[in-house]
Structure prediction request, 420 residues.
Amino acid sequence: MPTTKANISVTPGQRFRLQADLPRWIYGWLLLGMWWLLVGLAASPVGDKVWNPGKPYHDSLIVLFMAPALWWVWKRRGEFGRRLLNDVDGRLLLVFLAWASLSSIWANYGHVGDMVFDAVYIVLFVIVCAAVVAGNPLWFRRLLFWAAMGLAVVALGSVTIFPSRVLHTLSWQTEGRVVAFGALDNPNLAAFAYGAAIMWLTQIAVRTRWMHVLQTLALVAMVIFVIMTDCRSAWLAILVAQGCMLLTARHGHVKLRALVILALSVIAVAFGGWQYVKERGMSYRPQIFKQAWDWIEQHPWRGLGEGSHYTIQVADQVWTHSHNVFTHTAIMVGIPGALVFVALWVIVGWRAWLFRHISTGRCLLALWVFATVAFQFDAPELMQKPSVEWFLGWLPLAMSMGLAWRVRDTQRRRGTEIRA
Prediction:
């Protein structure tokens, strides 16, 4: 990486460049923190709190990610603020997070301070990732590549030692459903996180032979892991996303990977996969949706308040969320708040389609399609510290904003050259 010294002063409108904005040791620290944010979710030690197994991971991010990120944002605070407020998705993000934080005042369990902290954390993650996409897109893709490599190593370790582990939830081992470490000690959440990594890794082009080998081995390891989680919703989301990329991508290597994954899926279904899906049935999803809508009708405008506790019960099964991002969000912050998030999500999908012919745009499109399907089944809580929901919701938003910022920077630079 270049060793350019950081500039002492910056001018309004100047594009983001890690090597120009920060000393080398700080941007190296920041990139390490971003890598750990993606990998540590699955690789960190499992905490002793049943309700918060990812506590060691979250604590480590304060030093590894938050500290250097805050340094950069404070130094370029004017530019970060202008870009966030000038873009419609930036304003929608602020409105959604502000309303979600405010709603915790009337929540039956939420704490305003916790919600405000989570909101600031989310904004910090989104704008920092967007700035890296805008100013250092190649570095961002390398970050995604090596994050996938780290996750693949964790997947191999998880599958290897799974039979001998002592889990907080013993039923996962009884059912033979593989989980990862840290915050991903749930098979559904682990499958979603690894499915997201599969999405971005299949879209990244590498040039050297040894990186092709690493990429292929990592994809094999992560696909095996997702299969062993027995998470049907993740399987479906992967198939839909890869089918979309097969139809829309221009590059042969992208189509080939999508075709291979789809072909392997057909073989798996032919050799018993479909029977397994039929045996599991609909997992009460229609009944869950009906009860979720009942909660929405009780509090349609304000919602229960972010952080509230509620339950959904069908027969002898009890759940603490609606297994759907959109209905859960409506329950928490009301229909108006949910519509703000829907508008934000539509903008991300629209940008993904516009930029589908470049590498980062393909990563975004595959990830957005995957997340849109996955959101119908689980991973519903957007307002929390780094989690699988960040892979599915806030990372695509950051990539979308970063691509828009990069286009604007390019247009401004060309305009300056023409005037000169």
